[in-house]
Amino acid sequence: MIPSAMVSSTETALESLHHIKSTEPPEWLVPKQELSQAVRAASKLLFSSLKPYCPKSPFDQLLTEGFDVEQIWQQIDLQSQPLLSSLRREVKKFEKHPEEISKLKDGGVGGGEKKKKVLEQIETDNVVNDDEDDDDMDMDEDDDDEEEEDEEGEEEEKERGTEEESENEGEEKGGIEDKFLKIKELQEYLEEDEAREFGLKKKKTKAESKKEEEDTEEEGDDDDEDENEGSEDDDDEAEEEEDELGLFDGNDEEDEDDLENARYEDFFSRKKNKSSKEKAKSRDMLEEDSGSDDEQDVDKRKDGPSKHEKELDKLRSKIEEMEKANLDPKVWTMRGEVTAAQRQKNSALEVDLDFEHNVRPAPVITEEVTASLEDLIKTRISEGLFDDVQKARTSSSKAPREIKELDESKSKKGLAEVYEEEFVQKTDPASALLTFSDELKKEASMLFKKLCLKLDALSHFHFTPKPVVEDMSIQTNVPALAMEEIAPMAVSDAAMLAPEEVFSGKGDIKEEAELTKAERKRRRANKKRKFKAEAAKRMGKKA
Amino acid sequence: MSTEAAATMEIETVPSESKPESNPLPPKPKFEPLKAHEMSDGRVQFRKVSVPPHRYSPLKKYWMDIYTPVYEQMKIDIRMNLKARKVELKTRQDTPDISNLQKCADFVQAFMLGFDVPDAIALLRLDELYVESFEIKDVKTLRGEHLSRAIGRLSGKGGKTKFAIENSTKTRIVIADTKIHILGSFANIKIARDSLCSLILGSPAGKVYSKLRQVSARLAERF
User: Residue ranges of the K Homology domain (chain B) (predicted)?
Assistant: First the structure.
């Protein structure tokens, strides 16, 4: 239950608020007592109305009597700071969970429904503009009173803005908005499009974008601006999100820049704009505000350029675009040979590259493939057809050369005996002793070989006798007569030398009896010649 | 008749100087070869071989082995002069060949150099065997430890290198401090000498062995 005194005071305060709103800006330049009183009353009202929402405020009501402007401002500040932070949190929450707004709508925020209605009345005509106008508001502030009121209004509007937003979205728009459709974004897009079409610069939120705009302004080229705007719009949309999340500094920067970009129409053309300026700008609606300004500007200028001029502008802008594209360095895909350092990271992933594969693609292992392989293996095993590597046997036709071992011990035979043996070997080949490896060993190996041969012949179906290996044998050049003697039985005819080995001469060898007369004469003549030569040599020596 | 023919032939060749021979020359006398005994106007041939002190006791030990073949088969008188420390050899009347004395002298000399009796006996039996001696300093001047090492290299561990050379080249080698004596046939001596020289000069035994192996294989293939 609100006490009657309070009600009356509130009414008076509201009245004063109205009065403030209605006063023209020039009136504020001169300090007036009644205005200040009205302002104080209004501030008091606002303060007390905001108090329930403020968790820890030391003052129950704003103390204005006998207090300095600074002091009043301090009080307001004390209340507003925590309030602002709480509001920020609320807004963040609403950003993340839009469904809560509907809850809010249904339940109604605690305390102040009545106030809401009152505020609605005030704000109905300013709904759209309110959300849009933000930056121009702060430019006019020369008066402290005005400023503080504006700040208060700002706070209130912020609060109102959040509530309003939810209300507006819920009640006035009536369920249009959901995750997909956001009126905010729609409005932004419209503004961007118009700006691009008509070549007007858009007011940006960040300081950098502001500076860019200033540059473009200096250039004075609409087409260039279009380009900048076109690229900046995307940035701004992203930045807007950040702003909404609560970067308070952006507002201040923009305020400064907006001072430079202020226009007459912004201040003195419409009353609606002025009032919205006075009210606090909502941080959420920055982009829309600037956009709406442009819209308004555009509307004014539409009367200027004719249709033909517009078309020419469009064409010019297109030409400029194309020229710029030609002058700029090409996209990396159009540049020919590009190394990884010359393009962006992971940019090759986005492009559909086409290149030749020199390697046959690996076979896809499917069930069928495995099944076929297994079948093959099974058949091979059953057949016994293994592709084993066969060892190539080198057929040795000649026996390995016997290596004479160096005897490192003192020879048991005396030297005389050694030579004796040598001599005997020379004269009598039959008694040639085997020099290499033990005789017993040799005998044993021979016996075993014979045995093996016989066994092979008996056991193997397809028996092939071993290839004949020439054994090392001593070929002695001994006349056949000696061989055929009784004593040497061990020597066979095979061990004899072949006739070629006996004598290998060329030409026609004739016996004495076979010689013809001429040949005999020739022979004798040769002999005589030789003899004469020798005799002459002998004579020469003697003399 | 034949002389005339010969004379005429001679006249043909040397026309300037020609002695007209009326009386024919007496027939050439036929002389028997001189016996060893009769050489130098019937005086006895001597050979004296001095005995080094380190061979004294082996001489005493093997005296009979030396004496028997010399006296029996070579038919040469042999005695030991103890005072003069020499072995004296003398021809007998029935010494068949003058070379026997020399052979026996060589045989005894070989024994004095250090060869064993069965090895030295080969000198008596075969003509073509020789003894060659040389010193290490003839090959390369070595002093002190190098010399000792060279000698060690020559003989090898337990004498195995020396025996290896002996067996492969059919020679006998005696290494006496810095002197080296080789007994064998001419070609074999050459081979043995080459191996020994390479060892003195410093080549490792393995290298010498490989060479010896080749040589011996070649020698064996000769027949």
Answer: 128-201
Chain B positions contacting chain A at CB under 8 Å are 13, 116, 118-119, 121-122, 124-126, 129, 156, 159-161, 163-164, 166-168, 170-172, 183-185, 209, 212-213, 216-217, 220, 223
B86 and B151 share one domain: no
Q: Does A536 touch chain B (CB under 8 A)?
A: no
**If you compute the radius of gyration of chain B from its CA atoms, what whole number of angstroms results?**
25
The pLDDT value recorded for residue A216 is 45
Among chain B residues, the shortest Cα distance to A472 is held by B221
In a domain, B51, yes or no: yes
Q: Which helix (H) or strand (E) holds B91?
A: strand B86-91
A432 touches chain B (CB under 8 A): yes
Residue pLDDT, tens place only, A30-48? 878 888 888 888 888 888 8
Which residues of chain B does A410 touch, with a Cβ-Cβ cutoff of 8 Å? 159, 163, 166
Contact A410 B121 (CB under 8 A): no
Show residues of chain B in contact with A426, CB under 8 Å: 223
Q: Which helix (H) or strand (E) holds A40?
A: helix A33-50
Among B127, B162, B163, which would you mutate to test the A interface (most chain A Cβ atoms within 10 Å of its Cβ)? B163
Beta bridge partners of A398: A470
Residues present in chain B in total: 223
Q: Are B69 and B118 found together in one domain?
A: yes
User: Which of B126, B160, B188 is the C-terminal boundary of a domain?
Assistant: B126
Quote the CA–CA distance of A177 and A346 in Å, as a whole number: 37
For A210-249, how does the pLDDT look when each residue is reduced to its tens digit (9 = 90+)? 454 444 444 444 444 444 444 444 444 444 444 444 444 4
Inside any domain, residue B20? no
Residue of A nearest to B162 (CA): A408
Residue count (chain A): 543
The ipTM of this complex is 0.77
Q: Compute the distance between CA of residue A13 and CA of residue A416 in angstroms, rounded to an integer.
A: 155
How far is the C-alpha of B106 from the C-alpha of B94, rounded, in Å?
20
What pLDDT digit, counting tens, does each position of B72-103 carry? 999 999 999 999 999 999 988 888 888 899 99
Helix axes of A286-301 and A183-198: crossing angle, nearest 10 degrees:
40
Q: Does B118 contact A417 at a Cβ distance shorter than 8 Å?
A: yes
A422 touches chain B (CB under 8 A): yes
Query: What type of residue sits at position B56?
Result: Y
